[in-house]
Amino acid sequence: MTGRADKVERRLATADVIGLDACTPGCEPQHPATSLAALRSRLPDGDAFVRTAELFRLLGDPTRVALLHALADGGELCVCDLAEVVGVSENVVSQAMRLLRASDIVRTRRDGRRIHYRLADTHVRMLLDVTVDHVAHGDRARHAATADETGLRRGR
User: Fold this and answer.
1) Domain count of the chain?
2) Residues contacting 55, CB < 8 A, separation 6+
3) Which domain holds residue 97?
4) Separation of CA 87 from chain center
């Protein structure tokens, strides 16, 4: 390295780097402490955050999400029908349904030896719908950004 490059390297190594989304040292809050305290008091309790995180953990598995979408679109379905629709084994479906049922995301109805599953309530359907809309929105935004970038590279 040249002497100048060494100096720049040393300066960068010792510089305090502050992210764009971080407050700088000595930053004054943008809102009065009373409004921040009011905001804090309106937040759910910690247990609600834990339960919400557990729900998102359950929805973090693509197979379980596919099963829920099948139930949202197909209504009440048995394990063998869910396995056929989603393209996984009945054992995989049974394990997934056990977890989803324990978390009150799906409900069951017994018909002899066969168990039929359905979404627990409209909140689950709304959560799936909002998630699909959010993913589609992100896909459209990425596609538009890529198109803009491509257009800029071509000199349009």
Assistant:
1) 1
2) 103, 105
3) 46-121
4) 23
